[in-house]
Amino acid sequence: MNRMRSPSALAGLLLVLVTLVFAVIGPWLWGEEAARFDPLHILEGHSPEHLLGTDDGGRDLLARTLAATRQSVWLAVLATLITTALGIPLGALPSVLGPRTARFASGLIDSLVAFPVLLLAMFAALIAGTGARGAVVGIGVAAAPGLARLTRTLAGTVASSDYVAAARVLGASRAAVLVRHILPNIAEPLILTVTANLGYALLGLATLSLLGLGVQPPDYDWGRLLHDTLPRVYVDPEAVAGPALAVAVAGIGFTLLGESLARAAAREPSATSAPSASRGESRTELPPECGPLPGTPEAVLEVRDLSVSFGGATPVRGISFSVAPGETVGIVGESGSGKSLTALAIGGLVPRPGEVSGRVLLGGRPLEELSRRELGTRLAMVFQDPMAALNPALRVGSQLAEVATAHLGASRGQAWRRAVDRLGRVRLPDPAGDARRHPHEFSGGMRQRAVIAMGLMGEPELVVADEPTTALDVTVQKRVLELLAEVNETTGAAGLLISHDLAVVSRYCRRVLVMYAGRIVEELPSERLRHARHPYTRALVASSPDLSTDRSLPLATIPGLQPTPDEVPGGCAFAPRCGRVLERCRTDRPEPEDGLACWNPEDA
Ligand SMILES: Nc1ncnc2c1ncn2[C@@H]1O[C@H](COP(=O)(O)OP(=O)(O)OP(=O)(O)O)[C@@H](O)[C@H]1O
Fold first, then answer.
1. Cβ atoms 191, 257 nearer than 8 A
2. Residues in domain ABC transporter (predicted)?
3. With 90 as the cut, is the pLDDT of residue 315 above it?
4. In a domain? residue 211
5. What distances in angstroms separate CA 198 from CA 85, 173, 184, 191, 255, one per listed residue?
6. SS3 for 313?
7. Atom 3 of ligand 1 has which residue's CA nearest to it?
8. Do 16 and 103 fall into the same domain?
């Protein structure tokens, strides 16, 4: 808030305070004098008795200007309330509506913004009727598209955050997502913008009154005084100067204050960016720990020919795999191979304009047949960055409790008790106290535990964890991964663990899917990783050091780069980087056979 000590902020604050003081005391101190007719002194210029002169009723213009403060500010407040009531819902709705309706709402905002503000104000004012009401409605309506556009941008950013995705996957209704997750997180910049809007409303109302569309006699505001005195501007300029100065002082004051507050409150961008690869960390390959043997029938998750496209690019290209009850499967691959999009597609969370094709069956039922409520209780998702996955404006306990009230029909008390119980299960030190805290009061590890606890609020059959420990330090990583393994073991839920880290995957998963350029190139038991047959898997393992790696030799790397989704070559996508490439690899795409998609695999 140091920026609130800037000269412009202090000037804004001072001008607003002066305006508000005059709004309170103005009619009280000068109201009587402002209304007193004096036929002997009509239309006089400056004099010691009347510093700004008099009007056509002989009334003192200085007293009228001061007394008009309350009416002028009040009308600006009313206009701003109308702007807020129209602009914020209109701007926020596209973030929760379906794609078509959202496009329509966005198009409406864009066309209204393109309309000249003054024309829109006059149009609305004429429809609402002349006088104060018309002016207030006119200015209120005319400023709404601008506020809607800002709201749309802010809400769009929050709507694409992990905690909104988490709320959606947990089945929160559109209204709940909007009211509990989006609006509280954009409230601050909106309140500041609304403050600045008060200044614009004052100026706008004065303009309408000046044009004769505003307050009508015997009422008066600064705009009306300007309208009445303007014809005398060359004869008695001081008569016009009073109301003009008042409009300028108050308008500039509110605008400066609002903009300074907005600048002061501007936050650093949150750390939600994708983490970098972590292949250089400790690599002690330990025996696998969890899950039944692969191939168990009645898969909890069955993915068939899944593709995800964005325009001309297809980052996930027809992958198929399944996860059996109680099994934990790992997905590995270089950054950009399509791991996260696969997880998002499983949760029905691929962002627009992404298009998903193929089938995802959860517990044997297609994803699209499951209601949000069912999906929310049967599937838990743990995202990369726990801070981004929790709504910063809500207490952790409230976020967890929301799942139980939304899905299980629990009362608020029951839901809260369940939340405290789940926080205890993930071993937070003081579950009851921690439930009352906000996410920023938690350490990174505690936040990720809270996210896991949120997944446990339902009865998940599958826990999808996408790089759940990348944002955490190494010691906390291990504890969180062990907690996830324990959750799978105690609840019987299956797991899908996405990671860059081969050691993590081989430690916690029985089976591994290796992704390259949007396809699964090899599927194998994790203990077979060192004897993988696909040259890419071999190269991945070779470039992941472990305790047996000879430190005197340079670390092996995979030459070249993975192709971007819009330039995947024909044939095998790995061919340009492969040491075992054949002519055929460049032309024919190998389809997976017995878990291997390669024309020239290594010996087993
Ligand atoms: N919203 C999007 N719009 C367009 N392309 C996208 C979008 N999200 C992801 N992609 C592209 O899809 C590809 C796969 O992305 P994805 O996030 O699934 O990779 P990843 O394997 O999870 O990588 P990382 O390990 O770095 O998270 C990338 O090339 C990425 O640029």
1. no
2. 301-542
3. yes
4. yes
5. 14, 33, 21, 11, 7
6. strand
7. 310
8. yes
Whether residue 144 is contained in a domain is answered as yes
- The complex's ipTM? 0.97
Protein residue with least CA distance to atom 9, ligand 1: 341
The CATH number of the domain where 259 resides is what? Answer: 1.10.3720.10
Greatest Cα pair distance in the chain: 113
The closest alpha carbon to 363, from 422, 418, 436, 302, belongs to 302
Q: Give the separation between CA 558 and CA 539, rounded to whole angstroms.
A: 6
What's the CA gap between 570 and 549, in Å, rounded?
35
* pLDDT tens by residue, 185-202: 788 778 878 887 888 888
CB of 341 within 6 A of ligand 1: the answer is yes
CB distance 196 to 255 below 8 Å: yes
What separation in Å is there between the alpha carbon of 416 and the centre of ligand 1? Answer: 36
Residue 101, strand partner residues: none
CB 342 within 8 A of CB 305: no
Amino acid 588 reads D
Q: Which domain holds residue 475?
A: 301-393+438-586
**Is residue 83 one of the residues assigned to a domain?**
yes
**Ligand 1 mutation target, pool 331, 339, 384, most atoms within 8 A of CB:** 339
According to the model, what pLDDT value does residue 556 have? 66
Q: Tokens for 60? A: 């003192």
